[in-house]
Design a protein that fits this description.
Blueprint: H1 14-20, H2 28-33, H3 45-58, H4 61-68, H5 72-85, H6 91-100, H7 106-117, H8 120-133, H9 143-157, H10 163-166, H11 171-179, H12 190-209
Helix pairs in contact: 3-5, 4-5, 5-7, 6-7, 6-8, 7-8, 7-9, 8-9, 9-12
Length: 210
C-alpha cells in the first residue's frame, strides 16, 4: 500500500493537530509509543487523557484515513484514537495494516485497537497475524503485542485461539528462543504480554469512563 503525505490530499493539518501536538511537552506519538502513560502518578496523565478522549471523539473518518495512509507515527496515533473510541468501522483497515506490517512500531497500536474492539472477528485477525509471523523467526515485528492481545481476547470471549501458539515448544517458544537472549526472556512470558495489553486497555477504559 503506497504512502501518501496528508498534505498532498488536503489534510495537512492532521499531523500537527493529532500526531505531534506542539502544545504539549513532547509529541503525542512519543507518549503513545512509550509506557509512561501507564505509570501510576505520571503528572501529565489527566491532561493527556483528556486530550486523547477529545481527539478520539472529534477526529473524522477522513482524517483517520489520511493518518493511516502515511508513516508510522501517524498510523500509530490513528490506531490509538480508533481504539480509544472503539471505531469498529476501521477493523478491516487496521487488520490489513497489521498483516502487511509495512512500518515499524505502529503494529503495537493496531493490536491495542483490535483488543479494545473485543470481538471474535478481532481474534481471527490477530490469529492470522501470528500464523503468518511467528514462523518467521528471522523477523521481530509485533509478535509480542499480538500474543498479548489474543490472550486478552480469548479471556473475554471464552475462546482458545491462542492455545496452539503457546503450547510447550510451539511457535511462540520457538520464536522467543531465536529472537530473544536467554537472560532477557522473562518479559516474553505469555502472562506478561497479556498484562501489558490489559494495562493499555484498562487504562483506556479509565479515560473513556472518567
Amino acid at each position: 500500500m503506497p504512502f501518501q503525505d496528508p498534505r498532498e490530499i488536503g489534510y495537512g493539518h492532521v499531523i500537527e493537530r493529532y500526531v505531534t501536538r506542539k502544545d504539549s511537552d513532547r509529541p503525542r506519538y512519543m507518549d503513545l509509543a512509550s509506557t509512561r502513560v501507564l505509570r501510576p502518578g505520571w503528572p501529565h496523565a489527566e491532561h493527556h487523557a483528556r486530550q486523547v478522549i477529545e481527539d478520539a471523539a472529534a477526529i473524522t473518518d477522513a482524517e483517520l484515513n489520511a493518518l493511516l495512509g502515511y508513516e508510522w507515527r501517524s498510523r500509530l496515533t490513528a490506531a490509538w484514537l480508533i481504539g480509544v473510541a472503539r471505531r469498529t468501522s476501521f477493523r478491516e483497515r487496521i487488520g490489513d495494516l497489521l498483516l502487511e506490517s509495512e512500518v515499524c512500531y505502529a503494529g503495537t497500536a493496531y493490536c491495542f485497537a483490535l483488543a479494545r474492539f473485543g470481538t471474535p472477528a478481532d481474534a481471527e485477525i490477530i490469529s492470522a497475524y501470528l500464523e503468518r509471523y511467528l514462523p518467521r523467526t528471522d523477523l521481530y515485528y509485533n509478535q509480542p503485542s499480538a500474543l498479548g492481545a489474543l490472550l486478552r481476547l480469548d479471556a473475554h470471549l471464552g475462546t482458545h485461539h491462542v492455545t496452539r501458539f503457546i503450547e510447550p515448544d510451539g511457535l511462540w517458544d520457538q520464536w522467543v528462543q531465536v529472537r530473544v537472549r536467554p537472560e532477557d526472556r522473562s518479559p516474553y512470558a505469555p502472562a506478561e504480554q497479556r498484562r501489558w495489553t490489559d494495562l493499555k486497555c484498562d487504562f483506556a477504559d479509565g479515560w473513556t469512563l472518567g
